[in-house]
Every structure is written in structure tokens, then in C-alpha cells.
Amino acid sequence: MIDILKFMDDLKEIKQMVDDQKPRYTIVDKCNEKIAGYQKEVDEFEKWAEEESQKEQNQIEIPFPEGVR
What we know:
mainly alpha; single chain
């Protein structure tokens, strides 16, 4: 939910720039800045998910000690 509120704030900021008739290049720069920020979050999540996946695979691949089976 917080992510949605953050996204709405970003859109409102850009909308205000349009309403204020800021130059197009500044609006595009702001959009690119926001996109880069969201992409960074996605990249960090994917990295975390991959690390968690590796942890799970490593736990599965651990052989049982002799005599335990």
C-alpha cells in the first residue's frame, strides 16, 4: 500500500509540473528520475529473491550424514 501512495505522490508531482507549464525536458527528466528509482527497487528485489532462492537450493542439496537415513 505504501508503494502505491509513493507512486501516486510521484504522479502528482509530475502532474503539477505539467500544470505549472514547466519545460518539457524538465518533465521528461523527472519521469526518467522516477523510473530509475523504481527500476533500482526492482533490481534490489530481484537480487534478494535470487539470493533467497540460492539459500533454499543449498539447504535442499545438503547430503545427510552417514547413518542418518
